[in-house]
Every structure is written in structure tokens, then in C-alpha cells.
Here is the input.
Amino acid sequence: MFIDSHCHLDFPDLACDLEALLHNMDINQVTHALCVSVNLTDFPRVLALAEAHDNLFASVGVHPDYEIENEPDAGHIARLADHPKVIAIGETGLDYYRLKGDLEWQRERFRQHIRAARQSGKPLIIHTRSAADDTLRIMREESADQVGGVMHCFTESWAVAQQAIEMNFYISFSGIVTFKNAATLKDVAKKIPLDRMLIETDSPYLAPVPFRGKLNQPAFVRHVAEEIARLRAVDLQEIASATTGNFLKLFNIPENILETSL
Here is the structure.
């Protein structure tokens, strides 16, 4: 069994065909998925999906790419997280690739999310792109290790992965690990301890081979696991069991939840 630790089923391209996507998850043994919030305006629809489906969970947060007028403070984010189907804070973090100039607002937003995670006791979903040094620095300064979390859609070096793991974080691999030109990431996938690994789709983006360039969906997370199993020369079931167990442990979900999916 597999779990997609990061997807965006509320996005229009996927929401319009939700029942088919849930069916595809079922036939590909993808038992659960975490629907990740990217802004507070759309958070209610993310939460509604989780409330309507036993095998979907939600997070709450504002993606670093979103420039907004009213920045949420830690207390507000923590209050929104006070719901049994909200299992994480984020996605949050830093992105210096798409936005340039004075990005202090991004760093302050990231700090507020880490504080919200500490207040709520729920782990973080961290996005970092072209900003690894500042991301790790702020994680340390704000004691992100107290709650831990996941470095989502990881594309950084083994050195960055090690530092994140030392702060109680998991490393999540997306369809990028199946791409031919992702040699550095493939090497990281070989080295990550099994008890610190998650898998995801980040759908509707980053569809894995053999679906690259097409609309991604949670059912395709199986192909991420298959590539990691190939890279590590282990049985697929070993990756499935490890990543499923890690998801349940990180997000404090009882193991018996899987029994309802059989």
C-alpha cells in the first residue's frame, strides 16, 4: 500500500474529476493522500475534501510564492489547524527561484508557520527552492526540530538532506526522481535512511515517468516508489511499507486507519 504525502486535489484540473482520481488511487493501492493548502482563501475547500473523504487529509498554510495583503500570524494559522482532519502546517518555506528582490516578507511568513506548528503540535510541510541555506537557518532559529516535518518535493543535495534529518525532518521524493536528468536526486534517494523517507506526487504537477508531461494524480505515486526501489535494489514492498509507516508516524495517525482501506 502507498500514501501520497503531498497533492493538490482541490486545484481545478483535479477537482473536476475527483471520483475518477479516487478510483484510480484504489486500483493502484494508494490508500490515502494529504491535500496540501497553498493559501488561506482556498483552505476551506481543502478542508472540505478531507471532511468528505475518509482517506484524505488536509494541511493549512500559505505557499511562499503567494504575495498577499494580510499576512497570517502564528495564532491564526494554529487556530485553523485545530481540526482532526488537519494534520500539518504548510506548505510553507522559501522560494528564491520565482520571486526576486526584498523577500523578507517570505522569511517572516516562514517563521510564523514554524511558530504555528509549535503552538499546534503539528508537523511542517516545507517547500524550499534556491533557498536552502536560509531555509535551514530559519528552521534552526525557530526550533523547527521540536515538531519536525517533511522537506517536500526534495531536490537539494545530500548535505542539505542530512541537515534536515538532523532536525527531525523526513525527505519526500516526487516524480522528479524518475527523470533521467535527476542524477543528484537519485543519489540522495539511494542514501536516505528508510525510516526518513516519504513519497508524493505534488499533483497536478511533476508527473513521473512514464506519464511525464501529463496531468499528475495521486495514483501515480506508485511509480515514484518503483523508481526508488529500483535505485536501491530492494523489493517494492519494502519502500511501500517504510513510506506508509513513516507517514503515519510523522502525522500521528493510528495504524488501524489502514484496516478501513483494505
